[in-house]
Amino acid sequence: MAASDELGAITKAFSGFGVDEKSLISILGKWHPEQRQTFRKGTRDFFIQDERKFERWDDRHVIQLQHEFLRFKHAIVLWTMHQWERDARLLKEALYKGPQHNVLIEVACTRSSEELLGARRAYHSLFDHSVEEDVAFGIHGPERKLLVALVSSYRYEGPKVNEETAKSEAKFLSGAIKGAAGNKNLIENDEVVRILVTRSKLHLISVYKHYKEISGNNLDEDLEGDLYLQETVQCLCKPQAYFSKVLDASMRPNVDEIKKEAVTRIIVTRADVDMKQIKEEYNHKYGVSLPNKIEDVANGNYRDFLLTLVARGY
Amino acid sequence: MAREYLKIWGRLLESIFRHFIRFIARCAEISKANVMICAKYIFAGWGTNEALIIQILAHRNAAQRKLIRETYAATYGEDLLKDLDSELSSDFQRAVLLWTLDPCERDAYLANEATKRLTASNWVIMEIACTRSSHDLFLLRKAYHARYKRSLEEDVSYHTTGDFRKLLVPLVSALRYEGDEVNMMLAKSEAKILHEKICDKAYNHDELVRILTTRSKSQINATLNQYNNQFGNAINKDLKADPEDDYLTLLRATIKCLTCPEKYFEKTLRLAINKLGTDERALTRVVVTQAEVNMQRIKEEYHKRNSVPLARAIAGDTSGDYEKMLLALIGHEEA
């Protein structure tokens, strides 16, 4: 391999998601000290020139490298866990690392009623508290009621939907959204929260449909003014579109670590559920297939593991 | 002519006897001889024999009653409850009906009924939500899905408003941690928060509702003890500000249910019995739902508070088959 190609390969091996273990072993392992020095001098991103005349690793990059090396381990551990423990740990992490409201909403709204209940019980075992206790205690501000209610929900999952009620609730939402007109108070509207938090998913899909007929717009588009309500509706009514959107946002260049973690989380938690549909949505929206995108941005074992999960055909 | 009819009728009755005896013996595992004696009385009159129903059903536990229902349905192709329904009358009927349901179905039935009627209904929802274990509350929510094709929280939130909704919906949705671990620091700080809100008369404050609807029962108990230690009064005393305020009354009852349910049930029974013309719905509800759970302690509380045994109070206030059913249920553990 030409020297410049090797430099390029090693740079890529240290960038993106995960690390390219093979290249690091085969190329970096055989480099002499002079070659390694060329590498250090050549890559301004990773190394800075120290005043005492040596090239020093940039601290931020070392920290980032730690995350990248551990990404594969994290994915494997998460994948091997029982689904309930996984969701319970995701909820706990979302509370103390942030809090990350989007993760709380995602877990609470995209799991089935039984799965969410299992996660709540696992939470008891793992953390000696109920999840609603911790969410109520850790979240302040007007979104608390919404989030506590979302993690406590046990929605009806059968096919029966009362179309009359769905129509009238869609009408009500249309009125409430027009009345709030961009200010944040919509989340404090008890009736709006009641509808989103207690109704079954099929019922809400029907409300979504009626809303479109009444107002001409999609419900989640009209909720642009309130991020939490918008995410709630998206997770409940069109989860695959939501997931493909989050995946795309996480795989852009130069995003922070918290956003990057979404890739592992989504792929591991959806691989057994609706990965096929997520792939279709992704392709449809962004014009590139999800496996290709992963090939592009991820490296080494982590990449291979993700591709295996994504290819499973569920 | 008449003799012929009697012979035919006699043979018919005999064969019905035999079928019935086999059925009862199969599902209740009592000796055939015993059942024979009981069964003879069933067809003594033209209608059903309430005494036998009490005798057969009142002293069976939940698993046995379930088995009886299933065997009845398999044998006769009818729901035992429907058949009883058409034969029995009002209070007695309601007691038998409720008793025969599975505990979780019964709770679902009562909760659903409570979302349909007016004010008293908030009490029933609160009572069920606070006095059942987390596991039983979950079973009830599941039974509710199956029976009513909606979730319990949907119906409760749809049929309640304002402060009542704010309190009741989280109460029915909670899956409280059930361990004994208590965090004393937290208990102290949350006692302070409760006191603050009460002093401000902010009885529906988010923080107050949060503490009561999410913390485990042991944690709440510790918090309320701290409240008493730090501020000199039990919390319910400080919540007596306005006797006309329904919400405050419900709040006090919620706290009682969470910390000392036997006292709550004793009071409910006392009020139901002493009320001008007995509140049968409340009486039936408490006796039927607590018979297999906590009746011994409730009877002790009742005796302590009222100086008469519960059995005597019930006998003094009710009559007929209804009275006999209730007495059989509260004596259930001794049967």
Verbal overview:
With 314 residues, chain A is mostly helical. A two-stranded antiparallel sheet of chain A has the order 1-2. Chain A is elongated. Chain A has 19 helices and two strands. In chain A, strand 1 and strand 2 (54-57) form a beta hairpin. By secondary structure, chain B is mainly alpha-helical. Chain B is built from 21 helices and no strands. Chain B has helices at 2-28, 32-42, 50-58, 62-76, 80-87, 90-100, 103-116, 120-131, 134-148, 152-159, 162-173, 184-199, 206-214, 217-231, 235-238, 246-259, 261-274, 280-290, 295-306, 310-317, 320-330. In chain B, helix 20 (310-317) packs antiparallel against helix 21. The longest helix of chain B is centred in the N-terminal third of the chain and has 27 residues, at 2-28. The relative contact order of chain B is 0.08. The chains are: A mainly alpha (314), B mainly alpha (335). At the A-B interface, helix 7, helix 8, helix 9 and helix 11 of A face helix 9, helix 10, helix 11 and helix 13 of B.
- Count of helical segments of chain A? 19
Biggest sheet descriptor of chain B: none
What is the molecular shape of chain B?
elongated
Q: Bin the strand percentage of chain A.
A: under 5%
Using a beta-carbon cutoff below 8 angstroms, give the protein chain pair with the largest interface and the number of residues from each chain: A-B, 29 and 30 residues
Number of strands of chain B: 0
User: How confident is the prediction overall: mean pLDDT of chain B?
Assistant: 83
Total number of helices of chain B: 21
